Amino acid sequence: MGRGQSACMLRQDSVDAPSSSALSGSASLHAEPRAAGVPAAERASQPGVVTRRTCGGSEWLCLGAGQRVLSEAPPESWARPAESGWELIKHNARREVWRAPLGGRVYYVKYYFARPWRDALNALVGRSAHRAEWTSGLYAARARLPAVSAIACTPRLQRMEASGQPGRWCAVLVTEGIEPVRPLSDFWLELMTDEDVGRCRRDVHQVIERLAELIARAHQSGFEHRDMHAANILVQTVAPGRYQTLFVDLQSARRGRYVDDGAVVRNLAQLNQWFRKHSTTGDRLRFLRAYLRRRDELEPVCDFGRRLGLDFGRLVRALARAARDHAGRLGVRRDHRTGRDGRYFARVRLSEGWRGAAMRTCKHPSPHSAASQLTLSREWWQSQFARPLQWFDPSVGESCKNSHSAQVRRAVLDLPEAGQLPVIIKRPLARNWQRRLVQLLTISRSRRAWSRGYALLNRDVPTARPLAVFERRWGPFVLDSLLVTEALPGALDLEQFLRRARAERTPTEWQALKRALLPLLVAHLRRLHERGFAHRDCKAGNILVAERPALKLLWIDLDGIRFVGRPTQHQQWRALVRLHLSLAEVPGLTRTDRVRFLQSYLAHFGVARAAWRRAWPALSSAASAKQRTLAARRAWKLKHYGRI
Fold first, then answer.
1. pLDDT digits (tens, 9 = 90+) for 280-337
2. Is 407 in contact with 397 (CB distance < 8 Å)?
3. 283 CB burial (10 A radius; 0-12, 13-18, 19+)
4. N or C: which terminus of the chain has fewer CB atoms within 10 Å of its end residue's CB?
């Protein structure tokens, strides 16, 4: 290390590790108005002084137990974690996390792999991921924020390959292990499975209180965790029925400044993204009340304490808007992954001009989707679809549809190791020269269905999972296309399911099924609209019913679905009319069932309780008009194509 670099490190040490006089409150990390947002009564004990140590040819910064860890661990173990018996916990293209038992204790070692041009830009502005997490950890310790403690780091270390050859350069951060501990997301889902209702509610309330206290203390201490999702908060059981929450992954934190109202709302909206799917509205409101109460308690004792400029009602409304905007931005980022090479998707090139994209693995597997639990390689997709049109040979698969607009086949793909994957392969067809011209010059129907399928999944709207899309191109022109989606064995569309259930079940079972299906259908349609989608062909035949492992509804045949941001009242009404009409001839569905569905769908905040009384005659009239339009359309198709 040169003299200039050493001097730079010394100056940085003075920032990261203040002297003992500074720790008593006379100085601060980032020129705060007072000392790091720490309550005055808690400033007696502070983190120790940062020291430097050379280990394995790398210069390390150490704090507290960091020197002992570097002394006890073999110097070569940092470059060879796998050969040292450490356990790989998490990995992606940018970083790895290893669990390392050292000296009778557990530590976590995070490797930040070098990205030359980006690291150079970060160096110009004085930013790096490992350095940001190190500094944030020190700040959290001084502010008495429960967080995983960093004890050592080095900006430059070269990993070694298993073959003994030099590997990638990386930065390393070592943190103390806290065990047993669980991510909040896993811990919460485990609580929800507790069959003791009273104990479950007590535990949920305890976790809510601890979480509210953690986040309120962070905000009042000038600390904003800008990647605050449920997996970046850990839960530790300190006694039966008593828990503690703490932060992890601090590299994106903003610290040493007041957290204003807008930042509070954005931060809480991040946390809401996961909890809106896995918690009740009552629990989320209870958390907000606890958060406001804890803020008020901490305001006079924290150096960055300030009163929130929003009362409870305004906070709820602001959070609802921010959560919707945050979910929209997150959905758009995830949508962009489907056409790129990466961890989850792969671009695939085949023979005869065919090319496309295919799923590699799924970040959030679903119990209803066997494909979401698989890892599939690019080479496997190329072997299965070496000749894409072979799947439409009558001897290969079962035909589901063979019309003027599409060919649809059922097929079974052999998995790489063992087992089979049932799929549906759809080949859109152009039924006239105008459609052929449109198909030639624009995005293919298969590509649109692929994009819409993942747009739905990325916004928590259930649909049959698209697995691959292939297009045969001649330059910029699309000559042919295929869409491969997962087939759910035993699943039927809603109309077929109801007809079969009515014929096979007893009257008591039939009534129980209708009571279970009604709220699912209401929620299914309402979620589609709340997530910003409109459906111009919302009929029972385009809703799939899966009974295992639990009753669930999924959208299929996505040609009629498009993302509009906020569906208009007319678009929502049109979907309601189409669904009502498609179920009109199903035996066993009474007028009372239809009225109950309409009541449930219209029953939400801001709608009068008797609104269904005015909507019912309009719905019946619109359904009759739609029936006449469909009859005329069928007659036209029969005349021009000889089939419907």
1. 989 999 999 999 999 999 999 988 999 999 999 999 999 999 998 998 899 999 999 9
2. no
3. middle
4. C
pLDDT tens for residues 205-241?
999 999 999 999 999 999 999 999 999 999 999 888 8
Contacts with 287 (C-beta within 8 Å, 6 or more apart), sequence order: 208, 211, 212
CA 529 to chain centre: 19
Percent of the chain predicted with pLDDT > 90 = 48
- Token pair, residue 250, equals 């601090």
What pTM was estimated for this model as a whole? 0.79
How many Å apart are CA 371 and CA 269, to the nearest integer? 31
* Paired sense of beta strands 420-428 and 477-486, if any: antiparallel
Which DSSP symbol is given to 403?
Answer: -
Residues 236 and 190 sit within 8 Å (Cβ to Cβ): no
| 335 alpha carbon, distance to own chain's centre | 12
Tell me: domain 492-641, CATH 3.90.1700.10, correct?
Answer: no
> How many C-beta neighbours within 10 Å does residue 490 have?
9
What fold, for 3-176?
A: Phosphorylase Kinase; domain 1 (3.30.200)
254: Cβ–Cβ under 8 A, 6 or more apart, which residues?
A: 223, 224, 226, 263
Separation of alpha carbons 224 and 267, rounded Å? 7
Q: Are 464 and 424 in contact (CB under 8 A)?
A: yes
Dihedral over Cα of 277, 279, 284, 290: its sign: negative
Token code pair at residue 640: 């021009």
Backbone angles phi, psi at 396, to 5 degrees: -95, -50
Rounded distance between C-alpha atoms, residue 79 and residue 302, angstroms: 42
Distance, in Å, from the CA atom of 390 to the CA atom of 102, rounded to the nearest integer, reads 57
Write down the domain spans for the chain. Answer: 3-176, 195-336, 341-486, 492-641
Q: Quick one: which of 337, 329, 362, 336 has its CA closest to 532?
A: 329
| Angstrom distance (rounded) from CA 210 to CA 626 | 55
Pick the CATH number of 195-336 from 1.10.510.10, 2.40.10.170, 1.10.10.10, 3.30.930.10: 1.10.510.10
Would you give the distance in Å from CA 598 to the centre of its chain?
31
Higher pLDDT, 118 or 189: 189
For residues 403 and 397, give the distance between their C-alpha atoms in angstroms, rounded to a whole number: 17
pLDDT reading at 11 higher than 50: no
pLDDT, tens digit, for every residue of 468-526?
A: 999 998 888 889 999 999 999 889 999 999 999 999 999 999 999 999 999 999 999 99
